[in-house]
Recover the amino acids of this structure.
DNA sequence: TGAAATGTTGGGGCG
DNA sequence: ACGCCCCAACATTTC
């Protein structure tokens, strides 16, 4: 009887373009697909609440897809470093295959697993595919990591060939005996009371099929306008693929090649293609940074930011979290996040800038909130992006770049559809004051049914004064 | 992947 | 006709 190969799923909850799986099948061995819910490995960022909701449904979808292919998803809970060798022993596995992970704790974990499994004569093989570019493959001229995006983009795309995606196997050879599996319910990934996931259910279809559908829709309807419209939260102009990508329901290589294929020979799609690929590579760049600076999620990349006089302001933080800052575009974004587990990218920047620069609340606080509430929460992208806005990052926005929420609102949500959707109490305000209701006259406010301080908050800080305060504080940091 | 302050230019109103 | 002022529109500088 042939010894099985364990395929250990992590951030790669799919069957297509899965090299660990393809290689296992090529070995001709029975396959035992496994997912381990590991909340115990020290030093790791435990998945946030919205991610856990997504994970539940993604695992359910993967289990169904595996069943269709004549296989089964084995679920276990515990420390991967202990659970996996025990399971491998129990199954008499000859090998464990997995897609490489890039979180700071992952390399230690993988090293230790390699030792333990090797000790039992079990091969441990790691495969690429979660990223387009392995972090250590893209190097500057003197062999170091990149700190700036544009050279990273040039070097990566010039030197690395992105392999074509592997098709999903139709069937997986089953072992003669299945090991025990925990139930998905026992993972307790879903909210109970209150059940806050209604908006998530309305918005998303987690799983590989949902990802494929989203990709198809995006390529057909939004790629053409992507370059011009991707900053517009009032239009369905973004791909919405991030949560699928974060859980590995689709691989970046699949997105890369699918976009290239559809744009091939169509000049009208060339610009959209390029901008979309650049967005994919921002994710790559974030992982590149994280792999060389593993403290990126906790510590400012620029050490002088350690001394920044951040403010502790629980009430202001709470107003931000719940979308009650009095700045319509910020509140719309924060409410979209709370309701759907997602926020438009442009609005993320505006909301982040507001927390950091208007409220002077540490970027790590915003990072933690996003980590818990985003269905696409991604350690590298989240950390790198918050540091980018704070100005403490590698390739960061200069300290004096302070977003003005009402100008950003007027520019990117010109007819106010986004704000009216998420801040319905302002829906009847005319366009010209929608993004700055504090400037509307009493007559206009009354006609729109708005009473500032009652039906909608007055601004919790004055942006002009807050901007001056932030500029002074950030300037002092430079010793100026 | 900014915004605001400051500088420059040029058209038009006006004495 | 001319100088002067105002100010929008745009450019540049500064934060």
């Amino acid at each position: 009887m042939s010894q099985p190969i364990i395929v250990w799923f992590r951030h790669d909850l799919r069957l297509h373009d899965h090299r660990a799986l393809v290689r296992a099948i090529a070995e001709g061995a029975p396959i035992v697909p496994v997912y381990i819910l590991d909340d115990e490995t020290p030093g790791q960022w435990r998945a946030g609440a919205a991610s856990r909701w997504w994970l539940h449904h993604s695992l359910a979808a993967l289990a169904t897809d595996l069943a269709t292919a004549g296989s089964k998803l084995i679920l276990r809970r515990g420390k991967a470093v202990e659970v996996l060798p025990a399971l491998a022993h129990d199954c008499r596995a000859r090998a464990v295959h997995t897609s490489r992970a890039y979180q700071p704790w992952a390399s230690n974990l993988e090293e230790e697993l390699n030792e333990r499994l090797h000790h039992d004569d079990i091969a441990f093989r790691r495969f690429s595919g979660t990223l387009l570019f392995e972090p250590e493959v893209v190097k500057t001229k003197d062999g170091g990591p990149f700190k700036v995006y544009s050279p990273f983009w040039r070097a990566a795309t010039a030197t690395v060939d992105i392999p074509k995606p592997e098709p999903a196997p139709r069937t997986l050879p089953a072992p003669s005996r299945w090991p025990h599996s925990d139930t998905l319910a026992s993972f307790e990934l879903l909210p109970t009371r209150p059940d806050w996931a209604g908006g998530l259910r309305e918005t998303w279809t987690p799983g590989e099929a949902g990802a494929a559908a989203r990709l198809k829709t995006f390529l057909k309807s939004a790629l053409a306008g992507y370059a011009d419209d991707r900053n517009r939260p009032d239009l369905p102009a973004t791909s919405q693929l991030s949560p699928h990508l974060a859980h590995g329901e689709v691989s970046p290589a699949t997105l890369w090649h699918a976009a290239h294929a559809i744009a091939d020979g169509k000049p009208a799609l060339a610009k959209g293609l390029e901008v979309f690929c650049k967005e994919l590579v921002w994710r790559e760049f974030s992982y590149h940074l994280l792999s060389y600076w593993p403290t990126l999620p906790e510590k400012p990349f620029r050490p002088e930011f350690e001394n920044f006089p951040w403010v502790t302001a629980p009430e202001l933080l709470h107003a931000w979290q719940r979308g009650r800052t009095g700045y319509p575009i910020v509140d719309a974004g924060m409410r979209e996040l709370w309701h759907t587990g997602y926020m438009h990218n442009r609005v993320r920047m505006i909301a982040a800038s507001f927390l950091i620069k208007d409220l002077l609340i540490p970027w790590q606080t915003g990072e933690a909130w996003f980590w818990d509430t985003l269905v696409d929460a991604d350690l590298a992208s989240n950390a790198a992006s918050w540091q980018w806005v704070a100005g403490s990052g590698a390739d960061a926005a200069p300290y004096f770049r302070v977003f003005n929420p009402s100008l950003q609102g007027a520019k990117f949500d010109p007819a106010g559809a986004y704000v009216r959707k998420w801040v319905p109490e302002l829906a009847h305000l005319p366009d010209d004051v929608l993004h700055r209701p504090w400037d509307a006259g009493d007559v206009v406010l009354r006609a729109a049914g708005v009473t500032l301080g009652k039906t909608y908050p007055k601004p919790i800080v004055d942006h002009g004064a807050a901007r001056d305060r932030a500029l002074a504080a950030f300037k002092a940091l430079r010793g100026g």
Q: What stands out?
A: Residues 38 and 79 of chain A are 5 Å apart (CA to CA). The two ends of chain A are 73 Å apart (CA to CA). The mean pLDDT of chain A is 96. The first helix of chain A runs from residue 19 to 26.
